[in-house]
Amino acid sequence: MTDDTDHADEMPAFLQQYYLVFLRKGPIWSGEVTPESTQRQAAHLAYLQAQYDAGHFLVYGPTDDPTEDLRGVVIMKVDSLETARNIMGGDPHVKIGHLRVEIMPWWADSRVWRT
């Protein structure tokens, strides 16, 4: 994987770089349920599942954030931060501003993931 930090050469060999994605309420967030929002939610979930099926996501799902700003978390295994941004930018909720993403490189022990 392409590293997006200056510390790659300092990391133990068993550590791999992943990307943590935080899905937060976007600038046009609305909790209102409408036929359009229901359809968009279905498209959002289908998009997330397609990215999981393609091997870009290790895990993803909603949160139960008491502040309700954080709506979901994704752990991605892709080759770069740019790739992560491009993939998350394709999410229907992100495209229209219903959700916004925060993405950060994250190093984790590659031996802990189940395949």
Features of this protein?
Alpha-Beta Plaits; 3 helices; 115 residues; alpha+beta; four-stranded antiparallel β-sheet; elongated
Number of domains: 1
Radius of gyration: 15 Å
Rounded average pLDDT: 90
CATH architecture: 2-Layer Sandwich
Q: What structural class should be given to the helix and strand makeup?
A: alpha+beta
Tell me the β content. 25-35%
Q: What is the CATH first-level class name?
A: Alpha Beta
- In percent, how helical is the residue content? 25-40%
Give the tally of β-strands. Answer: 4
CATH superfamily: Dimeric alpha+beta barrel
* Main pleated-sheet profile: 4 strands, antiparallel
Tell me what the structure shows.
- With 115 residues, the chain is α+β, with helices and mostly antiparallel strands.
- It has a single domain, classed as Dimeric alpha+beta barrel (Alpha-Beta Plaits, 2-Layer Sandwich), CATH 3.30.70.1060.
- Helices cover 29% and strands 30% of the residues.
- A 4-stranded antiparallel β-sheet has the order 2-3-1-4.
- The longest helix is centred in the middle third of the chain and has 19 residues, at 35-53.
- The model has no long low-confidence stretch (mean pLDDT 90).
In short:
The chain is built from 3 helices and 4 strands; from the N terminus they run βαββααβ. The chain is α+β, with helices and mostly antiparallel strands and 115 residues long. The two termini are 18 Å apart.
